[in-house]
Specification:
Elements (H helix, E strand, L loop, with lengths): L3 E6 L3 E6 L4 E6 L4 E6 L8 E5 L4 E5 L4 E5 L2
Antiparallel strand pairs: 1-2, 2-3, 3-4, 5-6, 6-7
């Protein structure tokens, strides 16, 4: 992680927005690496939200919302 911008937790995972590397990194509750999602383009994320019941990750900027399917 180079520049963690936001950390959120759910029942299963810890989500960290690594702004400098343009990615969302997931760890399990034991702190073990699970997965990551690269953020493409010029999308400047201001907030992330995870809905594990629908398997969606919401990437929110000042002008739009992008939805990513969780693995």
């Amino acid at each position: 992680l180079n520049s963690p911008n936001q950390i959120i937790t759910t029942d299963n995972y810890i989500y960290i927005h690594d702004k400098a590397n343009r990615r969302i990194v997931l760890f399990n509750k034991k702190g073990e690496y699970y997965s990551q999602y690269q953020i493409g383009g010029s999308f400047d994320i201001s907030q992330i939200l995870a809905d594990e019941s629908s398997r969606k990750l919401f990437l929110i900027s000042t002008s739009k919302i992008s939805v990513v399917d969780l693995k």
